[in-house]
Amino acid sequence: MSEGGALHRPALAPSLRGECAITASSSPPAERAPAAAPAVELRGITKRFPGVVANHDIGITVRRGTVHALVGENGAGKSTLMKILYGMQKPDEGTIAIDGEQVSFASPADAIARGIGMVHQHFMLADNLTVLENIVLGAEKLHGIGAAARKAVLEVSDRYGLNVRPDVLVEDLGVADRQRVEILKVLYRGARTLILDEPTAVLVPQEVDALFDNLRELKAEGLTVLFISHKLGEVLSVADDITVIRRGTTVASVVPGETTPKQLAELMVGSELPSPETRESTVTDTPMLTVDGLHLSATDPDGVARAVLDGIGFTIHKGEVLGIAGVEGNGQAELVEAIMGMRDPDGGTITLDGADISHAPTRKRREDGIGYVPEDRHRHGLLLEAPLWENRILGHVTEKPNSRGRLLDLKAARADTERIVTEYDVRTPGIEVTAASLSGGNQQKLIVGREMSHHPKLLIAAHPTRGVDVGAQAQIWDQIREARREGLAVLLISADLDELIGLSDTLRVMFRGRLVADADPATITPEELGSAMTGAASGHLEHAEDGAETGGGAAE
Amino acid sequence: MKKIDRTKLTLGIAAPVLAIVAALLITSVIILATGKDPLHAYAVMVDFGSKSDSQVWIINKAVPYYLSALAVAIGFRMNLFNIGVDGQYRIAAFFAAVVGGALTLPGFLQIPLIIIVAMLVGSVWAGIAGVLKTTRGVSEVITTIMLNSIAAAVIGYFLQEGRLAVKDGNLFHTPDLPASSHFFTIPTQPDPLDGFLVVAAVVGVAYWFVLGRTRFGFDLRTVGRSESAAQAGGVSVKRMVITSMLLSGAAAGLIGMPTLLGVSYNYGTDFPVGIGFTGIAIALLGRNHPLGMAAGALLWGFLERTGTQLEFEDYEQEIVGVMQGVIVLCVVIAYEVVRRYGLRIQQRKVGEELAAQARKTDKAEVSA
Amino acid sequence: MRRVTKIAAAGIASAALACSLTACGESSTEAAGKDKGVGLAFDVGGRDDHSFNEAAARGTDKAVKELGVKSKLMTAKNGETEADREQRLTSLAEAGFNPVIGVGFNYGNSVNKVAKKFPKTTFAVVDSASTAKNVYGINFSENEGSYLAGVAAALKTKTKKVGFIGGVNNALIQKFQAGFEQGVKDTDPKVKVTSQYLYANDDKGFNDPAAAKGKAKGMLDDGKDVIYTAAGQSGAGSIEMVAAKKGAWAIGVDSDQYAQPGLAKYKDHILTSVVKNVDVAVYDVIKSVEDGKPLHGTVHLTLKQDGVSLATSGGYIDDLKGELDAAKKRIVDGKVKVAENPAK
């Protein structure tokens, strides 16, 4: 479906061709437009990919000066629709009207000329250039690259309260700052309507709030924001209007005041929203994984060795889910790789079920019962060009049913792949298709099915539901909960704080390679967790209690 | 599932057909540009190539090519570019010839001994590149090219009178192997087939079996497809690099054997060079598939056999070289085109089925 | 489904194999024609190598002109095997060419092998011996000619440093090296000779002018002012490089390279050439076949028989005539024995 298209999406930055047009036509039409005309009006948009209808009879009206949210599951057709609006794809049917005037976009340059700008989920910035240079790059014709450009950038930044520092190198900026640079980049090019694709996916709660403040600022200045998300709480807090897309078509348009997250979710999935809550405890006192004093140094590109893991120690018992919160890049990936044996720690011990595995090879650890749902499933979890049954063997080639002795047992492996496909509801026409042709959610279900099939003692789940649609998400949560009941120990790493709080029995916060805080998921709020993640709340044990005392019913 | 398989089969045939048609067209244009008749050229090639002695010649010629392609393909399957097959087989054949020429054992002992020496020397030579890659991170492309030159220099040093060679007219060569070490031939008319054909077939089957049916082969292919996934899956990438280089080198050691044991019986200054590079082309042509490479090796032999005949018919000698190049280019492009097309079809199919499922559940919901 | 393809492919392969095992289809050797003239198979480089092959071609051209025979010239590729050479010779013989001449020592084994299958055809091979009844093996005393080149080089050098570049380090080219080194040493022991090869054992050395160019540059930079190159077609690269340096001399090989139109640009720097009279020998073979008294056996053409000589075109060695004649006389008289292998 549309996900197949997304794989091949060219990294389109606003092209030079478009820039010359902007000066001529970007702002004026907005001013001249009749007050009543909506900023964007899509009517009857239909887009067919060979054999699949990605969008079908979509109708959306976006009022000027509002934040309009577009919600829907992964694969519902949101991305395709936005690509159509941004000129990256042409609709087969339907009309687009900007400020009441019907338009037809052949390329993003046309869209930019009409005052439409897009902030992609994956930033398109050059790390080794300054903020100013990044903004001006490709738009040199507007104000040159000198003092005039600097003045214009600062002007835009001030007007919308973006607080951008023009001379900092982008590589020194955090995620939230980079996002602001992206927004400024689009505004600098004269955008009056901004499309933000999943802008909160990479942010911690505090940063999300700051972003929303920015969006309100934009709105106040008369700009229009189209906001794509599937996080319903956020949508309800910031949007003026909400359009829900399911299976390629618009199923509802609602106003936040008149709806609840539950209703929205049901509109999105067509059934009830799953919840990650697990309250009844299955934690035993038999330790399954014990990590003690783990230390790992890495040499960064400048040749400086620094500790990426320092003094890490924790124990996961049978039936326990230990969640690790943290902003990405604070050592979570390294911790997982050290436990998996993909990196050799230079200090400390790792004990699995009583056996020291600190320096055991990865294969031994897998055979000993560690299951691994990797963070980056394309790099670490799948052979994209191989058929599903070969992917079923991956990582477990020495185990039954995949092999007997030194020989592969292709028949058994194939049969077991069929079983996984059925039991774990992997939506595929067969096991001979390549993993690359499955959608992200189905790829993940295959991985979870594979890892669970070997009855692991310990499951390492890194962002297990990232990029996975709501349906698959619920299934994966169910799998983890069920295995936990049967005595599985789980190390859960996630950027989705609801998921972390909902699934974990114990929570730890990781910051700059150290475990700096721990919390009780029963009482902590995402906001409290978020401040510990940024290092602001250099929390020690039971930070949650403070929250409980001061915030009272926060956790209720 | 059946449907997808049929598509797969069609696509599998489409690629080589597309490549051959494109290659024929391009070659025809080139021949026309030289002012000659391309159709007559093809007629000459088919006619001459199908003669019985041509068939024998082509098969005998294809045997070392096939072995060479296998040696290269072992590396290719795990993303290693072993350009050094050329040096590996030459130095392997040289030392095997030296050992063979110095001993007079019964054939059933001496022939295996010579072959084992060749495989060992080939392994060691390729293994050097493997060790350098894993311990020092040096690209195997660089090291194997260098090792080719070093192999040539080493052979050049020892292949002198008074060192390891004897002088015979204007040639230097290692002492002749005793008659007991001559490999058997398969009697056919008018010329015999090289018995090493059997060895090549066995190695081809072993290649297919080890890569497709063993744990080791799966690990090797995994590394080739995604090093990061292999590592996460518990494969020791470094060990696989060294092992596959050793295997590639051992296979390379066999390349010189049909010549040494069946034609020249010594390693001389006239020992064939460059088969290792031909192997790269054939491995590309055959897509690393044991049967594909066999077809590629035979095609190569056919082109070389008939190329001389073309020169006889007053076509340019270089035409065959051009054809070989064009074919490899066309095959590589055609397979890539077909692969992408196939992937698109597959994604569409998956999408269609999911859409169908979704519609079904939708209806179910409505009726519920 | 995949299994089906495999089975099908295996079937085709075994059918093809069975076909050749039972030798169905006509053998190409059955279709022999009648006398078509001279068949000449060149070593790598082809007829226009300005050197060795070209000398053979000249002999053939002369025969075509004077005896009215026809000719067919074919050329080897780089990286050939014995099978390729055998096929080339076989093709020529079965097409009815007589004599069939292999130019270059690489044809040594194949000429003698193929000749046995065509007893009525006369074969000849340059730079190799005859081991079959109907083969004429033509060998030259390259070492003796090179000795004279060494004498000339020793007398001409101003820097007292001279160089030798061989195409491939094999027994044949070592004869050139041995003679040259000995000639220099016997004439002026103070002159230093440096000998280098382009390739240790790859016939590409006769077909790689760029490599020779690089080698020559190295020698020139090192102050060597007379460079003798025995490397077939590669020699042109060395001559080109030498010609770019004032006061430096190149010594050619096989043909009189001063007189080669292709090298005319550089001829002011071609001191002399060690000529192998391949053309004469080739002409003789062709004539003997035409006369019905084909030559056979192995012949060694020495300095005494004028099989090798030093070219005097350009007149650059006229001033050395006395010394050169004396040296030649010493060799012809047997007072000096020129080694075939370089001193270790």
Give the overall shape of chain B, derived from the CA principal axes.
globular
Indicate the mean pLDDT of chain B. 87
Query: What's the CATH class of the largest domain in chain A, please?
Result: Alpha Beta
For the record, what is the CATH homologous superfamily label of the largest domain in chain A? P-loop containing nucleotide triphosphate hydrolases
What is the string of SSEs of chain B from the N terminus onward? HHHHHHEEEEHHHHHHHH
Question: Strand order across the biggest sheet of chain A?
Answer: 6-7-8-3-9-10
Total domains of chain A, how many? 3
Judging by the overall fold, what is the CATH architecture of the largest domain in chain A? 3-Layer(aba) Sandwich
Number of helices of chain A: 22
CATH class type of the largest domain in chain B = Mainly Alpha
How would you concisely characterize the structure shown here?
The complex is a heterotrimer of chains A (556), B (368) and C (344). Helices cover 36% and strands 24% of the residues of chain A.
Task: Please explain how this structure is put together.
- The complex is a heterotrimer of chains A (556), B (368) and C (344).
- Chain A has 556 residues and is of the alpha/beta class.
- In chain A, 36% of the residues lie in helices and 24% in strands.
- Chain A has three domains: 2-122 and 178-269, Rossmann fold (3-Layer(aba) Sandwich), CATH 3.40.50; 279-369 and 457-465 and 488-556, Rossmann fold, CATH 3.40.50; 377-454, no CATH class.
- Residues 1-34 and 543-556 of chain A have low confidence and may be disordered.
- Residues 364-368 of chain B have low confidence and may be disordered.
- Chain C is of the alpha/beta class and 344 residues long.
- Chain C contains ten helices and twelve strands.
- A six-stranded parallel β-sheet of chain C has the order 2-1-3-4-5-11, sandwiched between helices. Chain C has a six-stranded mixed β-sheet with strand order 7-6-8-9-10-12, sandwiched between helices.
- Classes of the chains: A alpha/beta (556), B mainly alpha (368), C alpha/beta (344).
- Chains in contact: A-B, B-C.
- Chains B and C meet through helix 1, helix 3, helix 6, helix 11 and helix 13 of B and helix 1, strand 2 and helix 3 of C.
- Chain A: Residues 40-272, 289-537 form the ABC transporter domain.
- Chain A: This is ABC transporter ATP-binding protein.
- Chain A: Keywords: ATP-binding, Nucleotide-binding, Repeat, Transport.
